[in-house]
Amino acid sequence: MRKILSNLKIGEKGLIDEINIDEIPLKLLEMGCLPGNSIQLIQIAPFGDPYYFNINDSHVAIRKETANEIFVTTENTI
């Protein structure tokens, strides 16, 4: 199932499928926020921004507006 990164639930994992390269800071790309890499939502800050992710064993904080520009593919759990 394809989702926007900001729509993941805590603990949910996926693979980065597509990114809007013009809206993603270079630092995130350097830290592994690239298509094909695994990602898991660890925590959401109390006011809903930022989101904390584990990307290939690196912990990264991503703002909600940036997370809206990243698409992931998750397993369909039925």
TrEMBL record:
Entry annotated with the keyword Iron: yes
Entry keyword set: Iron
Pfam annotation, one family: FeoA
Xref: SUPFAM superfamilies: C-terminal domain of transcriptional repressors (SSF50037)
Iron in keyword set: yes
Residues in Ferrous iron transporter FeoA-like domain copies: 3-74
PANTHER family: FE(2+) TRANSPORT PROTEIN A
The protein, known as: Ferrous iron transport protein A
Organism: Flavobacterium sediminilitoris
